[in-house]
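Table S2 (text version). Query chain:
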Amino acid sequence: MNVLIIPEDFRKDQYMLKPIVEAMLVYLDRPRAKVKVLTDPLLGGIEQALNKARIQEIVERYRGMVDLFLLCVDRDGNADRRKRLDNIEEMMETHLSVGKVFLAENAWQEIEVWVLAGLDLPADWSWKAIREELHPKEKYFQPIAEQRGLLAEPGEGRRTLGMEAARRYGQRLRQRCPEDIQALESRIKQMIGAQ
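Corresponding structure-token output:
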């Protein structure tokens, strides 16, 4: 199975999304799935990532090589984000042949929260507060990356922390993120079962 992750901006998101999706696929008994992150074209933000025409161009460009397209974006506190993703999914169904699937998911509130879900967090932090925070990247992720001396690495700590979180996918990450990680996992499992 060939998987293409479409992030809103690959420059930092690739370091989190690739190891987490790979861990998810191992959990779903697909350890040999080939996972790539879209780097061409660079979308560079949420508006381009939610632009149906841009997504359609990407799907048409790569559909011969990809079995599963995963559009992964931040929710950013926007309650309507899921509806926009559903509309994009619906439109993409008409552009894919049998056996090809397009799924979209929004991280609650940012993809950095998925990474935090797999880490040992300070005892005085509340997981509920992290999930509800509109700016968890600034309030929670960056302080951990800074404390661990990772801000100078590629992705400003996302590479190391993303791989660390992915190693705890089954034990911690998926349990802490039922609204988004488990939802995506369940939909991928359905897709795998239908093949």
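Notes on Table S2: The mean pLDDT is 95. The beta strands are 2-7, 34-37, 68-74, 101-107.
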